[in-house]
Design a protein that fits this description.
Distance between the termini: 16 Å
Strand order of the largest sheet: 1-2-3-6-4-5
Largest sheet: 6 strands, mixed
Order of helices and strands: EEEHEHEE
Number of helices: 2
Number of strands: 6
Length: 125
């Protein structure tokens, strides 16, 4: 059975998708970008500032499902510029201290020309 997540503590979906879906013992989040919950405004102009907001949005979705970053088993990270890799990692490393499996790729463009996006897969308790 699918369980869909919708929390006002993370930005609302801006299309035909959910913030996250739980199924078969796992939570799959949609990619989170640096948008403020409630307003949808961009939060930050640097990759560090935007990564901080991305992680806060992911935290809200995880908490809505009774989870923490320690429950994350896999992340996929998207960067607008691979030159931001080290700066992005500084912020990422503060949240994902358990070092889940990860893919990190540069993409041509992110929504609203943002600098980073992260999606996670977490094990449900």
């Amino acid at each position: 059975m699918l369980k869909f997540t919708s929390t006002e503590k993370a930005p609302a979906a801006i299309g035909p998708y959910s913030q996250a879906v739980a199924v078969n013992g796992f939570l799959f989040t949609s990619g989170q970008v640096a948008l403020m919950p409630g307003t949808g405004e961009i939060d930050g102009t640097t990759v560090q500032q935007q990564a901080e907001r991305v992680c806060q949005n992911l935290k809200a979705i995880l908490e809505e499902n009774g989870l923490t970053f320690e429950d994350v088993v896999k992340t996929t990270c998207f960067l607008a510029d691979m030159n931001d890799f080290a700066a992005f990692n500084e912020v990422y490393g503060k949240y994902f201290v358990n070092k889940p499996a990860r893919s990190c790729v540069a993409v041509k463009t992110l929504p609203k020309n943002l600098l980073c996006e992260v999606e996670v897969i977490a094990a449900l308790k």
